[in-house]
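Task: sequence design from structure.
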């Protein structure tokens, strides 16, 4: 399937529709950084096998890492942790 060594596999699934006719549906979703580490790439790869059919589709979605972090800061839920500098006995 369409995975690379430097990618994180988020989902990998194989579904056998009909074992007698060998209908298979394979799906893989991966996440990786671009070679320059400026882009985050989400790839969805699908294969479908049948007695007279082999079909595959790969779709990639890319976003700037800087833009992703800006969006997270603006829209993400903030968590606050505190540390105190009290002396121990």
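Answer:
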């Amino acid at each position: 399937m369409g995975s690379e060594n430097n990618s994180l596999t988020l989902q990998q699934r194989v579904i056998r529709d009909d074992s007698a006719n060998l209908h298979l549906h394979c799906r893989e979703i991966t996440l990786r950084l671009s070679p320059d580490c400026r882009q985050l790439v989400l790839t969805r790869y699908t294969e479908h096998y049948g007695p007279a059919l082999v079909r595959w589709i790969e779709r990639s979605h890319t976003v700037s890492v800087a833009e992703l972090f800006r969006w997270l800061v603006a829209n993400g839920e903030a968590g606050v942790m505190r540390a105190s500098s009290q002396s121990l006995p």
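Strands lie at 8-18, 23-33, 39-50, 53-64.
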